[in-house]
């Protein structure tokens, strides 16, 4: 009977307060995921500078099976290029607009997360700055493009 009483109490607590989360502060920091799943992240102050767009998008292209988590409380013009890149790569993305995701300079704006644990040592986008971007394949010129280019010269 005591076991049944504990079960009822547990169910009542879950109904009142919601299901307990594992490491809620960590999940809040990393836009709803765990640190061990993060491949790369960008803070609000970094997204405002626009200088880290190339290395972040290169990582998006490298990992098409990952998910992009976006702090939706940030201005649309700042997150727009990343939404466009995610859409072009058919990458799943989630925009988090809950009030717990704030927009202070040290808060995260973007997180690229794996479905499982990957344990990347340095996830800050600044550490990816020196890596060469992925080269896009150049499409062969069509006959029309060749004609247009011949008139430009």
UniProtKB/TrEMBL annotation:
<dbReference type="Pfam" id="PF07997">
    <property type="entry name" value="DUF1694"/>
</dbReference>
<protein>
    <submittedName>
        <fullName>DUF1694 domain-containing protein</fullName>
    </submittedName>
</protein>
<dbReference type="InterPro" id="IPR029064">
    <property type="entry name" value="Ribosomal_eL30-like_sf"/>
</dbReference>
<dbReference type="InterPro" id="IPR012543">
    <property type="entry name" value="DUF1694"/>
</dbReference>
<feature type="region of interest" description="Disordered">
    <location>
        <begin position="1"/>
        <end position="24"/>
    </location>
</feature>
<feature type="compositionally biased region" description="Polar residues">
    <location>
        <begin position="1"/>
        <end position="13"/>
    </location>
</feature>
């Amino acid at each position: 009977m005591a076991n049944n009483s504990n079960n009822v109490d547990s169910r009542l607590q879950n109904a009142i307060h919601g299901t307990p989360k594992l490491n809620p502060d960590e999940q809040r920091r990393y836009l709803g995921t765990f640190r061990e799943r993060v491949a790369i992240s960008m803070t609000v102050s970094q997204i405002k500078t626009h200088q880290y767009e190339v290395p972040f998008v290169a990582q998006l292209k490298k990992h098409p099976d990952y998910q992009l988590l976006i702090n939706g409380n940030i201005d649309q013009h700042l997150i727009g290029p990343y939404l466009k890149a995610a859409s072009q790569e058919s990458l799943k993305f989630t925009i988090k607009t809950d009030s717990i995701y704030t927009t202070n300079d040290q808060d995260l704006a973007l997180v690229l997360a794996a479905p499982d644990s990957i344990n990347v040592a340095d996830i800050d986008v600044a550490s990816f700055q020196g890596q060469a971007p992925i080269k896009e394949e150049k499409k062969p010129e069509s006959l029309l493009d060749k004609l247009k280019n011949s008139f430009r010269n």
